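Example for tutorial group B:
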């Protein structure tokens, strides 16, 4: 069954990294996509992927309830993917109030606008691995309490709980996605560990690791993340039991340290360079990774791209990008 041909879909944060890839995927599946975009970015993911001419763009802020409500009503939106958020941990630690306001109020406004729209058939709210905070056991499982530790973590935990609350209180078709660290080509935030490392390697410079290198993380390739969002929405559209009001983890079940990740990229580059370990990072949890058993058993989802293959694809894309742009 094709869930997307001719279906009206709204993606908030549509010109972000994940939003751009999701928009591109939905366009290829012949959905009628509307992207809510707050800031006009000089080079965005949807432009790099070539999806911009095929979509409707609404310039607005997810913190504006009237804007969200008007967009959903005017374009007769049936499916909403809420991705708009301030997602950079470093920025969140420096500007906690703005981050908390953005991440909580944007989720609340999307939920409230959706509550008032009778035609809505599926709403996917983006949460994060960070919402779990510090846990006594690993990997994180969906039944674990949300203990968001730092400002970004706490804001995502709040948005996550609000989504579950609306689903259970109003009987709405809402589900929550909690992904590991998503990466891949066309991420324009070059300060993230993978594009930053590749940029350094392309310049023949030593990659910089801001932590002690032993932070353990789950890295999820962008096409697997998009498939996760799509699988969640499709289960809601099908009206399957056990989906609405639920949260799902999406990861590889294969966490690696930051140091090991950087060393894999160095090997792919073919360079003989050692990373510079600065050990200056703060405000982050040392070990985070997810169990994706629930997503596998209920949604039929699992990561389809190995970390080695995903890193190689990402390296090749950025190598060409940096060669053309620098």
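The residue assignment follows.
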């Amino acid at each position: 069954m094709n869930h997307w041909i001719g279906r009206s879909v709204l993606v908030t944060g549509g010109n972000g990294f994940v939003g751009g890839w999701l928009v591109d995927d939905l366009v290829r599946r012949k959905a009628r996509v509307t992207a809510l975009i707050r800031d006009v970015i000089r080079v965005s993911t949807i432009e790099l992927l070539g999806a911009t001419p095929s979509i409707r763009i609404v310039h607005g802020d997810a913190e504006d309830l009237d804007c969200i409500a008007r967009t959903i009503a005017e374009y007769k939106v049936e499916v909403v993917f809420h991705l708009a958020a301030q997602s950079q941990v470093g920025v969140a630690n420096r500007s906690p109030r703005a981050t908390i306001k953005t991440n909580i109020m944007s989720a609340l406004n999307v939920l409230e606008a959706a509550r008032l729209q009778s035609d809505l058939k599926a709403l996917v709210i983006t949460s994060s691995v960070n919402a779990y905070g510090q846990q006594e056991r690993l990997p994180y499982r969906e039944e674990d309490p949300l203990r968001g530790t730092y400002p970004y973590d706490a804001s995502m935990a709040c948005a996550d709980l609000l989504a579950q609350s609306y689903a259970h209180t109003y009987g709405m078709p809402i589900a929550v996605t909690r992904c590991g660290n998503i990466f891949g080509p066309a991420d324009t935030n070059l300060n993230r560990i993978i594009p930053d490392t590749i940029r350094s390697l392309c310049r023949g410079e030593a990659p910089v690791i801001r932590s002690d290198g032993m932070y353990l993380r789950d890295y999820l390739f962008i096409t697997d993340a998009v498939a996760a969002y799509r699988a969640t929405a499709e289960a809601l559209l099908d009206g399957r039991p056990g989906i609405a009001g639920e949260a799902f983890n999406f990861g590889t079940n294969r966490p690696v340290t930051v140091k090991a990740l950087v060393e894999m990229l160095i090997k792919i580059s073919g360079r003989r360079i050692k990373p510079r370990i600065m050990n200056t990072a703060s405000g982050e949890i040392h070990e985070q990774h997810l169990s994706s058993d629930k997503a596998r058993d209920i949604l039929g989802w699992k990561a389809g791209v190995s970390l080695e293959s995903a890193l190689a694809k990402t390296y090749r894309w950025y190598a060409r990008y940096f060669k053309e742009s620098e």
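The chain has two domains: 8-182+220-250, 184-216+255-287+305-321. Compare this with the pattern of hydrophobic and polar residues in the output above.
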